[in-house]
Structures are given as structure tokens and as C-alpha cells.
Structure to design on (130 residues):
């Protein structure tokens, strides 16, 4: 399984390059990977470089709740979503707010995230899978 989206990193970038937005494909991948973490298909450690500790804790809570629900209702369905277009807003040069719809045969999952540029790296400071 591939790791975290590498295009969220900006090593050795100059001022203008540092604030350049990561590729939309990297944002789509992060949204999909977060969904896979909650579903138990991916480890949280694979996202370690692209999320803050607060986001990691929230994903762990959501994963535990999803696991409990799946166990109680004996829900063994396998959802394989396909990321839709990324909708991006840049309130300032060091912040990106984005939304991605993940399309699966039986439902659509929305992922909202906020990326902030710190120490030459874009990291998700807020991430919600609805």
C-alpha cells in the first residue's frame, strides 16, 4: 500500500514555492487515505507526516467507533470509493481549505480538510470524514 501523499512535502523550497498549493491529486489521496484509516484498511502511521497529532487522535476515535458499529451490526460491506473533484479555497498563502467527495456504489462520503504550511510542509490540521 502506498504511504502518505509525498507532494504535500516541500523540501528546500524558496518563499514563493513553499506556499504553492499541493497538487489536487495529493489532496484527493489524503482524503481517501483518511477514509481508509477509519474503515480499518490503512494504518494511521502512514499519514503521520501529513496530519497533526490532534487529527491523529480524532481519526483514532472515529476508527474505534466505526469498528464498534461494524461489530454490533455485523456490517461486513467493503466500500471502495473513488475520489471526485477537489474544491479548494485559500484564505491566505499558508492555509488551504478543501472538500472532496468520495463516491462508492451505495453512498457518497464527504471529506473536509484544512491544510496549513508549517516548517516547509503542508499538514492537515483539521480533517472530517462525513
Amino acid at each position: 500500500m502506498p504511504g502518505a501523499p509525498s507532494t504535500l512535502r516541500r523540501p528546500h523550497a524558496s518563499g514563493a514555492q513553499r506556499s504553492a498549493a499541493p497538487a489536487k491529486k495529493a489532496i484527493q489521496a489524503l482524503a481517501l487515505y483518511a477514509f481508509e484509516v477509519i474503515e480499518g484498511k490503512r494504518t494511521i502511521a502512514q499519514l503521520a507526516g501529513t496530519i497533526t497529532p490532534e487529527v491523529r487522535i480524532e481519526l483514532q476515535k472515529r476508527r474505534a467507533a466505526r469498528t464498534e458499529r461494524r461489530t454490533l451490526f455485523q456490517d461486513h460491506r467493503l466500500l471502495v470509493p473513488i475520489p471526485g473533484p477537489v474544491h479548494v479555497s485559500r484564505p491566505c498563502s499558508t492555509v488551504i481549505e478543501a472538500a472532496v467527495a468520495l463516491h462508492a456504489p451505495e453512498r457518497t462520503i464527504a471529506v473536509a480538510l484544512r491544510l496549513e504550511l508549517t516548517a516547509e510542509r503542508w499538514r492537515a490540521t483539521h480533517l472530517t470524514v462525513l
About this structure: Residues 10-14 have pLDDT under 50 and may be disordered. Strands lie at 82-92, 95-103, 108-118, 121-129.
